[in-house]
Structure formats: C-alpha cells, structure tokens
C-alpha cells in the first residue's frame, strides 16, 4: 500500500522505522508515525477514506490487546512453573527402562520454546510432566 508523502529512501525516518522489508513487524511507534504522516500528507481535495483509518486503528488496537494478553499469559505460566520447585514430579523419560523418572523439582530452566523443570540433574519440558505431588 502506497502512502502519499512517504518514500522508500533510507533518509526517511518512517521508512527506517519499519525496516527494509515488508516481512518486518511494525512497532506501535512506527504505526503511529505512519498514521500521522499519512494524515499530514493527504490531498485535501481527495482525502483518505475514513473507514480505512477506523479499520487500521481497530487492527492496531487488536494487536496491542493480543500483545498484552501474551505478556500476561507468560507471567501466569512463569508463576505457575516456579510453584513446582520442591514438589515431587513424574516425567516421561525415554532413556529409562520404565519410560518414566520421578524426583524432586530442583529448578526451572527457561528455553526459547518455554520453561523446563530440572529433576535429578536433567531438564524436562513441561509437556513431559505426568504427575506432580506435594513435597
């Protein structure tokens, strides 16, 4: 989508803010800068369709709410995982003859794809937990 008054040159702060490719995520600040630039540079004899602005603002609002929800869910997960420390857990462990290992959760390790519990010196994904009991 072309925006009047916004060029692709690297000297343009708006173009720099959104990155060189369309695959980059647009930050909240960059979105607002684009919206303001679009408003400032529109043709007064042919103004932009107001429904497009409403649609863009609704999309932006939805994205902001999803970001906040993701942050809150991460906090809930982090808080619930730390509650496992000191508890006895049974986890799936294909390296054992029974396929399971039990032990006290001694710590939490955070990986890019989520937290893991440390049991008997080994780290296990939360999805490996089969049972948790009090200490």
Question: What's the quick description here?
Answer:
The protein contains three helices and five strands. With 135 residues, it is α+β, with helices and mostly antiparallel strands.
Task: Report on this structure.
- By secondary structure, the chain is of the alpha+beta class.
- The chain folds into two domains: 13-79; 83-133.
- 39% of the residues lie in helices and 24% in strands.
- It has helices at 13-18, 28-40, 50-82; strands at residues 88-92, 100-111, 114-119, 122-125, 129-133.
- A five-stranded antiparallel β-sheet has the order 4-3-2-1-5.
- Strand 1 (88-92) and strand 2 form a beta hairpin.
Main features:
single chain, 135 residues, alpha+beta, 3 helices, 39% helix, disordered N terminus
Explain the layout of strands and helices.
Elements: H1 13-18, H2 28-40, H3 50-82, E1 88-92, E2 100-111, E3 114-119, E4 122-125, E5 129-133
Antiparallel strand pairs: 1-2, 1-5, 2-3, 3-4
Number of helices: 3
Helix fraction, binned, reads: 25-40%
Q: Give average pLDDT, whole number.
A: 77
Number of folding domains? 2
Strand order of the largest sheet: 4-3-2-1-5
- The overall strand count is 5
* Largest sheet entry: 5 strands, antiparallel
Radius of gyration (CA) equals 25 Å
Q: Please state the overall shape, judged from the principal axes of the Cα atoms.
A: rod-shaped
Instruction: Work out the strand percent.
Output: 15-25%
Distance between the termini: 59 Å
Q: Which structural class do you get from the secondary structure elements?
A: alpha+beta
Helix and strand string, N-terminal first? HHHEEEEE
Task: Show unreliable segments.
Answer: 1-24
């Amino acid at each position: 989508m072309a925006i009047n008054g916004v060029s692709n040159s690297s000297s343009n702060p708006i173009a720099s803010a959104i990155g060189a490719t369309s695959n980059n995520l647009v930050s909240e600040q960059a979105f607002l800068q684009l919206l303001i630039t679009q408003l400032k540079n529109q043709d007064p004899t042919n103004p932009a369709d107001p429904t497009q602005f409403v649609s863009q603002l609704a999309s932006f609002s939805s994205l902001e709410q999803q970001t906040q929800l993701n942050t809150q869910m991460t906090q809930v997960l982090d808080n619930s995982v730390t509650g496992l420390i000191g508890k006895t857990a049974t986890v799936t462990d294909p390296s054992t003859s029974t396929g399971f290992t039990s032990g006290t959760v001694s710590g939490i390790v955070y990986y890019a794809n989520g937290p893991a519990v440390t049991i008997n010196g080994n780290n296990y994904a939360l999805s490996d937990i089969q049972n948790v009991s009090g200490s």
